[in-house]
Amino acid sequence: MATINFDSELRRAGANATGGWGRLAFLAQRHVLGTVGLIIMLLFVLTAIFADLISRYDPLTVDSAHRLAPPSMLHWFGTDSFGRDVWSRIIHGARISLAVGIGSTTLGATLGVIVGLASGYLSGWVDLVFQRVTDILQSLPLLVLALVMTAALGPSLPNVILAIAIPLIPTVARVIRANTLALREQPFVEAAKSIGMSEMRIALRHVLPNTIAPLIVLATAQLGSTILTEASLSFLGLGIPEPYPSWGRMLSESAAEYVRTAPWLVIFPGIAISLAVFGTNLFGDALRDILDPRQRG
Amino acid sequence: MTEQRPLLEVTDLVKHYAVRGGVLRRQVGTVHAVDGVSFALGAGETLGLVGESGCGKSTVARTVLRLVEPTSGAIKLDGEDIAPLSKTALRPYRRSMQIVFQDPFASLNPRMTAGDIVGEPLTVHGIATGAKKQERVAELFQQVGLRPDQMKNFPHQFSGGQRQRICIARALSLGPRLIVCDEPVSALDVSIQAQVINLLIDLQRKQNFSYLFIAHDLAVVAHISHRVAVMYLGRIVEIADKHELFANPRHPYTQALLASVPIADPKAKRTAPLIDGDVPSPINPPSGCAFHTRCPYAIDRCKTERPMLQAAGTAHQVACWLNDGTGRSE
Amino acid sequence: MSEAIPAETVLDVKNLQTVFFTNSGLFRAVDDVSFSVRRGETLAIVGESGCGKSVSALSIMRLVPDPPGRIVGGSVTLEGTDLLKLDDAAMRSIRGNRISMIFQEPMTSLNPVMRIGDQIIEAVRLHQKVSSKEAWKQAVDMLRLVRIPEPERRAQEYPHQLSGGMRQRAMIAMALACRPALLIADEPTTALDVTIQAQILALIVDLQQRLGTGLILITHDLGVVAQTAQRVIVMYAGKKVEEATVESLFETPLHPYTRGLMASIPAVPSPDAKADVRLVEIPGMVPSLTRLPPGCAFAPRCKLAIDRCRQEYPPLDEVKSNHWAACWRAGEMAEAS
User: Fold this and answer.
1) In CATH, what is the architecture of C9-229?
2) Which ipTM value was assigned to this complex?
């Protein structure tokens, strides 16, 4: 039998990780990809917050003298057909993506929790109605549904957030409902009933707090797809209206015309979208492994 | 126990579950989980309810507390039938009856502190709040052998035995007169079981409440109970004073059950298993006496006519057709 | 192995050490444990949850999950071969063939979408070259051996069509299909009702004696031990604290923990039993394996503990003939009784 270094084995198992920071450092070491994802997400958030400081030009200023300039020291990512600085537009575009991502995920998750909790906890006809509505919503692709909604509501930031949030509701509601159904059978819920607690209090005090972990996992996983949906909507001209810089719109404006002559107009927004989605997905996966190991698969 | 009126009197309790099948979810059968159970429990008394899995003992426990709605029958608490009461009308009665579950891990909300768990009933019934509540919870912690400084800990920081103590403290918080114990020690280690059983007995002596004690372990039931009822397929087949039952079991099923318990003494000769086969399904249970399919002494009458509980000695009732309805004498 | 092992010894475990590397530290789940099983003998391993009895069994099968677990020392010799030195392929040919295991929960141990007969066939054909027809016949014979009524029909059925007791019989049939030298039963009747438990225990003991299989019975139930085993080892906090023949152990338990266990189980009352006797408690709880006290792990809960117990771990001495105990005061207890 090979000799075993007990200390290194223990370090690998995380035995020396003490305190909040120690534990965090251990998790970061254990989930390298998740850490990478977290760093990307942090960069993304910081970029959005400090966009005005990082960007070198105003993203909306048109400069006809420098139209379609290739990347240079002056314009790191080049300029577009109006002479606007691509670097600055991408930096500011992070704001839009983040606002839509967080806004629609939060809205969708909140509504989804309410529906899922009510559906799972009340059961009976409430459940039946919610379930069938969910089925109908889920039979349509996320993008198509969002498309129809923005087309109906008109393009604006709140409308885009709403349009992306609504198709999220069934996904969240499903998970919360399944969780609620399982929790309802737990003896601690039965114990709560036996002391004469009202159904409402049981749902809020005993069931809801125990669905938080899967909810966080799910919401993080959905963040990437909401960013992607926003980009797609904008690409199709139904997202954030001009002149605000949205990564999706930047792509659509340039893709057909300039993909050969000015490829930087396509490459950089494309990388921005992929990186943001990639980062949230990596982080979401790691979070799932840490918080909810049963869902791994 | 010679009480004027029993604390709990259960008469003809029935709980049937519909079995649904097919695409249309039509009812295709009925599970006879509890099939006409009657018993009485005096103040300060412990009634043990034993039987094998699926015999309906846990359903009886939950139905008595109205955690499961009875199909029919009366549940009289202090002379008041609580079976027909609405949920709101039932609430004040909940203070008088509490439950301790089998699994001390699943019966505590993992996201609440032990102190909050024990204090919650006080809040719900508006009995105490703030410092007064904390004081009462600390007192309850001491009563069940926990330290008040453990109130701020979460369930996962406790061992199985300690968790069961928290469950007991929660049950005690409202000053109940009846505590239903559903297999309270069967998930615990042997050395911890004794601690919890002793605690339950000590608490009863001090506070004089009654236990309906459900377990599959005959030795544990025998230890804690004053009287014991044996259940088989949703029915009580024998009920008697503890010593009478173990000294003089009359129902062939009780006899088989007692003979099956392995005795912790290698010199005790192992008897060949008395009964063969498994418990039949509670969906369409056998006609007549439900035990007749496994009973080596069954007579023709057992197959057709259901025996009712009949007196077979002092403080001893049995449901068996043998010997003119007094069961089999060994 | 240089030492001669008696010819009839099927399994010889020497100084087995299995540890778990966890984020709360090093768990010595099995700490320097030795025992052996002879042909046709039943060895019971008794102890409470976390004492290392199940990990011992998994170590013999080399099924300890890694990570976090690892066998870090000792030897497990089955019919002359040290299993800990085998490669994975060689170990697979031993498992289910020379050693079999049956578990507590018969429902989860059977594949729900395979017929009972096919599952037994699978176990047989993994290790023996027989035609499928021959294997089916063997499967039916095995079901008959474990006294399942109508074995031809039952072989065609799926696990959910069988009752709990039947399933455990089917598990036993599967485990014994290759006539293993050693059968490990980990709490085989804990999930079953008493009347079924009595049937299954009687069956296991009967078959084991007829086939000459060595049996390791892991249980927490002293009643089961007394009724089925010939020899017993008692484990506490990863260590073997006592070993004896079943008669000697129940007559004069020599470790205070064993004594405590025996005193703490309520007995089914005999007619003359005194009512409402308090049970004897073992105070406190099983210590965490990562924070074991120095000296004897049982000392903090032990009424007989002296200063020495808290400083030095006692050696496992043969206090009486064929009766070992790891306790500084076992000698006194042996004399007193």
Assistant:
1) 3-Layer(aba) Sandwich (3.40)
2) 0.83
